[in-house]
Amino acid sequence: ETLKKTATAAMEGMSxxxxxxxxxxxxxxxxxxxxxxxxxxxxxxxxGGGEFALGDLLSQKLFQGKRRPxxxxxxxxxxxxxxxxxxxxxxxxxxxxxxxAFEIARxxxxxxxxxxxxxxxxxFTYTGVAMGHSPQEVxxxxxxxxxxxxxxxxxxxxxxxxxxxxxxSDKAKLAWQSxxxxxxxxxxxAVGSKAL
Length: 196
Fold this sequence. Notes:
Blueprint: H1 2-19, H2 21-38, H3 40-62, H4 71-93, H5 101-130, H6 135-164, H7 170-192
Helix pairs in contact: 1-2, 2-3, 3-4, 3-7, 4-5, 5-6, 6-7
């Protein structure tokens, strides 16, 4: 029932997008916003999967120089986004919705000290296991890539969250968050493939 409502809202948004780009984008944003209020975990899973898949495709084309992107690699990273995004949503949204400087600072510290390191360990472990790497190879990958991915996060997400809290609407906030995640997913994909 919940999945049906979410799928219906998404289909309504997609059909609207076909009729008129501007009007369609408005309807998609509204449908996603409404669905997110009713089923935030499902919507976040779908968006997270799309963000990681799109980020990987961009990485394969821009950083990895692949003429034909690997569908298997994109599917792995899309699946990671689907699996991880609802968990991150629950961690991040647990009492950190304020817009005061203190609330923003508290959320940034929580993200950068707890959530991002956990996400990165899960990311490099998941991708290593999915690619058939041995436990030792996964540990080596973590030792090499975790520090640089953390530094990139420390640069990207605090600035992103400051901007996020000053967005004029929920639709603008959603678009901003997704754009940042696509960019970070592209970065992670490039780092994981040793393209950067």
